[in-house]
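Why do we care about 3D structure at all? Because function follows from shape, and shape follows, mostly, from sequence. That is the central idea of this module. The next example makes it concrete: a single protein chain, its amino acid sequence, and then its structure expressed as tokens.
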Amino acid sequence: VAGVQIKLPPVAVSRNDAHTFKPYNPAESIGSQTPALPYIAPPPSQHCNTLAMIVIVAVVIVATVFTAGAALTAMAPEMAASAAATAGATAGTLGATMAAGAAAITGGVGLSGAVAAAAFAGGVAGSVAGQLTGKALGVQEHFSLREAFATGLTTAATAGISNAVGGGKTAAELAKLGEYGKVAATGVASYGAGYAADRIAGLDAHFSWAGVAASAIASVASSKLSSEELGALHLDANSVTGDFVQGFTGDVVGVHARRKFGFDDRIDYGAMATDAFGNALGNEIAGVHAYRKGVQEQFEQRIAQMTPQEQIAFDMAMEKGANEEQALAAAEQFSRLTDRPLDAKHPTFSVQSAPGDGYSSEQIDAFWDVVGQTAGSDGFASAFVNAKEVANLVPIRDRVDVLGDMLAEMNPTDPNYAGLKQLHDVMTDALLAKDVYYDHSIPGLLPEGITRIESPEELQKLYLTPAMLNDPKSGYFAAVYRNDATGGY
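And the structure:
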């Protein structure tokens, strides 16, 4: 009927009752047909297996040191024997092999093809041993020969860098000596060596100047902190505990330094401690600590066995700011002075051997004046070499003065006059040529009657200024000398 409203009851399909109708669904009678899978626990994280990682790191170090030692013994037995003697090991024993390997990978036996080859072989063997151990312990899935090759290259390069820059010393040892420039240079060079090794081996490698800067800063900061911590805790750097402190400190400082430069390195102190302990344990087993202790003991013996004259030189160097190693080098410079004739025709032009045995006070003054002028810019090692050369010239200056006196008494018409005059002038010019490269005149170097004009007032009279005589950019150095007898310049 038009206009009549019809109400329909609501329908709900979730239940059946007298007011609803739900179509038949056979799936509900059969139930779920989805297969039931057993629960599979997630694999454990690799970094959680602390004991396995310690074992792997220790195996890597022992295999590296042993292989490097065996290779060095085969290729350079003299170097290997020297390293064994340093560590106090008997030749032909396992200890001797380990000492040779420690010397090779730390740069303690100099730079040579045999050392580089031994370090490379050790690095490859260590990587192979570490990877196989990791697979056996279930913490590594794949084996990579490229990784082993890259590790060998890095080990060889690091050994060379350690010797060339740091003299085979650890970063903490260099920091103790105040050689922070060498610490930074070692960090930068090691970063570059690692990058180059990975590229050569065909591994993914990314170079970053931020990484270079982070390596330098981290090396300096961690070495300084490690050195201070070892001193405060009275720990021996060449022990498991001391090595652990150095390694852990280096890892912590390193990761935070890299994060400051924008790297997203994960901070995991547990992994850092594991790595540091594994390295310390491996170094102890492999004899690296024993070798380094031997090197330190030899250094201490050299200081204890100095002669009285060497002790004086040692103390003077320490007073001028040298560290113990630099001061010992100064003392040895004195002990190595030997007679050195100017030429066969003039055997009297020679230098005596040592202070207290003919080494004059003028020579000593000249030596230390050169050290004082050049150590700050050239370093003590170079300064000592230059100082020795100048000290050797002082007796030659004496002979020039003798020739000058002889010429003053001779008649210019004497047949020998011209030859002696030429010899006198040549030797005078040689002494001036040596003196000119120092900031001020070396005492005892200039012949009698020759004066170096140094004051700005005197130079101004000659229409000169100090700046006109020294150009650091070009390396040009000049000086003005006056002949007091003639008044000439």
